[in-house]
Amino acid sequence: MSLLLKGASRQSLAVTRSALEKIISGVDASAAAKISADLFAMVKVLDSSSAARRALTDYARDESAKSTLGKDIFKSLGSAQALEIFSKMAGLRWSSPRDFGNVLEFLGVQALVASAEKSGSLADLESEIFSVSETIAKSPELRAFFAVRNVVSAPKSELLASLLSGKVTQATLDLTSYLVDHPRGRNVEVGLNDFATAIAQIKDRQIAHVVSATALSAEQISRLAKSLTKTFGREIKVNASVKQEVVGGISIRVADELIDGTLLTRISQADRLLAGKNA
What we know:
Distance between the termini: 45 Å
């Protein structure tokens, strides 16, 4: 969920991020997590009402009227801090109604990251998001269950909690539970990747997706992260996965740049070269 916003929405994101940082700097981990939960709850409400989104992003509507409308909608839902952020957003200009909800979700992630930092569990949050995504991607049953769009007998987050409870931090459980109950048109793997990207953007770093035939050791991952950080000129977080079909070597993807040194790719390149010579 690396936000690609234009014009007014980009400026409004910067303003609201700064406002949220100021608020959460003065609260503890529990309060920051509450702000995050309230912001996510606001996203759910807004996504269910296109009329509310249009009204809150209408250029012609008075700023105070939009702020009052937001408070009326969420007065029984949000914490005072979340309502303050929402009112701030309602008074700003947005390039499209959709941007409003996307930024609100991003701010929910930002507040949860702050909570994890305050509790010393940010590294766990980042690694667990990747691990949960890998687990679901490898399970056809879980992928099928979470892909179902029709109403089920119980929230999908209940099954998720039964699978993850006691195995991940509360921040990870909160974020993944929000996603499976309110995917916003995404499958779980895409949503988790969006959140991982958002966390990296919040912390001003990038993610390197590394694939190898055998598991890399912690020392190898650490050395690779340091090398990539030096190469790209900014902090790199390495997410390493194993795919035996690559045979050997590794591939590294950072944003749109791919460094493919797998044996499978080399064999494929050799096959194409031989085919071209024999043509």
